Amino acid sequence: NTHFRKPKHWWVLTLIIIIIISSVFSFFVLEQLLYLQVFHFLVPKKDSLVSNSCPRDLFLLLFREYKLWEMTRKRIQIKKIDNISSRQVTFSKRRKGLFKKAQELSTLCDADIALIVFSATSKLFEYASSSMHQVIERHDRYSAIHRLDRPSIELQIESDSNNILRKKVEDKTRELRQMNGEDLQGLTLQELQKLEEHLKRSLTNVSKVKDAKFMQEISTFKRKGVELMEENQRLKQVPSLIHAHSYRQSSESILSNSSNLPEDGGSNTSLKLGLP
Fold first, then answer.
1. Which among 55, 56, 182, 262 has most CB atoms closer than 10 A?
2. Where is the K-box domain (predicted)?
3. DSSP per position, the chain
């Protein structure tokens, strides 16, 4: 049976944990006390005749610096702020900081700067180091000159496509001339061997297609010959069919005529069958 044994110096670990918990608790307690102390100086007593402006300003400054230091420790996530009030406060602070940085850049570097900002409520905020109208006109002039100097993206793409197609046409034309035995002087031995192999494969393919076409035409001629022989046999049978048909019609006409003659008991009649 194994018994649970406490690790050596377990009381040291327990003491360290207690010290850490006490430090965290003391930190939050001091923060709350500082917060209450600041507001104690911010709200003066009614029966106090002595001004506490200096201690109040000192504690207010210390508390503000502490809060700023605490905010800088936290990593701000760049995403949309869901709370509308916080969003408006952040927009106001960031806008002021942006305009301040633009002013510093214009002053330090002698740059002509113009900023146009629309808030979420469609409110306009603008800043210009010289004149907003002059900066916008300067931007328009530069854009117009830049468009005239440089071709548009569509024209550049079309020109590149035309160059690629032109090169392909030239390559195919040169290959056709080389297959016809022209312009072979500039080719190396390896290129000539490749051309020869290509022509052999092409000749083999042409021969295969030609043989297939030839066999197809032979089978077509055979089929037509069989059809002509069958048609000839049918034509040979036509005269006998016509003769039999004529004979049948003559017999039917004679029989119909004999049935229409008047009856005469004393007359000697005889029926003669045969062709007229």
1. 56
2. 155-247
3. -----PPTTHHHHHHHHHHHHHHHHHHHHHHHHHHHHHHHHHS--TT--S--HHHHHHHHHHHHHHHHHHHHHSPPP-S----HHHHHHHHHHHHHHHHHHHHHHHHHH----EEEEE-TT--EEEEESS-HHHHHHHHHHHHHHHHHHS--HHHHHHHHHHHHHHHHHHHHHHHHHHHTT-S-TT--HHHHHHHHHHHHHHHHHHHHHHHHHHHHHHHHHHHHHHHHHHHHHHHHHHHHHHHHHHHHHHHHHHHHHHHTSPP-TTS------S--
